[in-house]
Task: inverse folding
């Protein structure tokens, strides 16, 4: 039990996917302009990450034991097609949910955070429960970083910043400071 | 005739990737794998080299096969081709340089998710001849390698006071440890982007001034 809590907190704060592993930077910098959009993107990411963890566990347990060199290709193909399939199901069952999350799904599927999640949890040898908790933590951590970033960016729009600084350069420096702040969490579990 | 005409074209395609449309500093693509592994010049070169091979090989294959790839499934086909080459690179590095492979860890397979590589296939290799596609890939890959190397060098020199593991400043230098940690990656890339856009802006301003003085002289 303690183990699962540790996996969750570690993925959420200490080894935050965006701020410590630099995964999912494209949506992090591209979509973090508005608070509301980035929150919805975060929810969609959590959703895809949970599916990914399930797929990765299934592939690792039943298929890749026999053919480890197919790992990368099968991860990509299976995750992408599962997400596409679920997208179709949601579209049919709940148009409202599809409207809220749908446009983000194809954007996230080929994202390095998703593939990174599958590869990291494989390398760490996580089982099904551990993998799902890890995915939940990583997804929530991604959402947290994205929402924080969007909040900061909405404020900085109003600040008198030199024209040359505006855009990616400033966003990266803001991200650097955020990442520094998150390093503080590293002490959280140093005793363990 | 084609050779005399194609020569400057190919040269232009190469230079484009290296400087004017540099994938990192101008297009800001492919950041996910690059920031994580650029904490030393050696790692940056290894990552750049791996990406170089994957990009050139996939561009070659995609542009050779472009007639036989159906439009509807082209993106999936490109991804499978890229993933194949990344797997080859992953196993080759693990066999040849196990230490570096261990240090880069999961970030070698993540080359697949580098949007720069897929972008070149979709935007260039699938529409041009094999030769031009390879030249374009060489240029883009060199530009990426150059950017990674710049980032890795700055971070290693400031963060460890060393370059390729060689001590530079002696024992009096207090290393800026933050530079080799994750925040240093964000800060260095942000400042480098700023620096390059400053150079570009200065160049444009100078060109404008030159044009104005020429107009006045007339």
Result:
């Amino acid at each position: 039990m303690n183990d699962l809590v540790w996996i969750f907190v570690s993925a959420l704060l200490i080894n935050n996917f965006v701020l410590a592993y630099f995964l999912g930077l494209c949506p992090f910098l591209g979509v973090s302009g508005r608070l509301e959009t980035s929150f919805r993107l975060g929810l969609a990411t959590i959703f895809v990450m949970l599916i990914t963890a399930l797929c990765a566990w299934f592939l690792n347990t039943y298929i890749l034991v026999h053919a480890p060199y197919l790992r990368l290709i099968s991860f990509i193909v299976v995750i992408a097609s599962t997400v596409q399939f679920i997208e179709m199901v949601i579209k049919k069952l709940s148009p409202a949910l599809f409207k809220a999350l749908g446009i983000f799904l194809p954007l996230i599927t080929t994202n390095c955070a998703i593939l990174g999640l599958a590869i990291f949890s494989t390398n760490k040898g996580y089982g099904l429960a551990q993998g799902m908790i890890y995915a939940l933590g990583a997804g929530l951590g991604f959402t947290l970083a994205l929402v924080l970033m969007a909040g900061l960016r909405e404020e900085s729009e109003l600040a008198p910043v030199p024209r040359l600084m505006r855009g990616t350069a400033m966003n990266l420096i803001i991200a650097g400071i955020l990442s520094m702040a998150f390093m503080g969490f590293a002490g959280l579990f140093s005793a363990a | 005739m084609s050779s005399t005409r194609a020569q400057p074209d190919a040269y232009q395609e190469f230079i484009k990737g290296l400087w004017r449309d540099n994938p990192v500093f101008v297009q800001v693509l492919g950041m996910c794998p690059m920031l994580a592994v650029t904490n030393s010049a050696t790692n940056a070169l290894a990552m750049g080299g791996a990406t170089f091979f994957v990009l050139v090989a996939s561009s070659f294959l995609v542009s050779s096969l472009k007639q036989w790839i159906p439009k509807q499934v082209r993106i999936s086909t490109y991804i499978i081709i890229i993933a194949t080459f990344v797997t080859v690179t992953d196993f080759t590095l693990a066999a040849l340089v196990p230490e570096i492979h261990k240090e880069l860890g999961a970030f070698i397979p993540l080359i697949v998710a580098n949007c720069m590589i897929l972008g070149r296939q979709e935007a260039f290799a699938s529409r041009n001849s094999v030769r031009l596609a390879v030249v374009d890939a060489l240029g883009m890959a060199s530009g990426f390698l150059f950017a990674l190397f710049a980032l890795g060098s700055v971070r290693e020199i400031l963060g460890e006071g060393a370059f390729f593991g060689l001590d530079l400043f002696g024992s009096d230098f207090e290393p800026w440890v933050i530079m080799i940690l994750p925040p240093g990656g964000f800060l260095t890339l942000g400042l480098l982007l700023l620096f390059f856009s400053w150079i570009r802006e200065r160049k444009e301003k100078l060109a404008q001034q030159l044009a104005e003085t020429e107009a006045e002289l007339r």
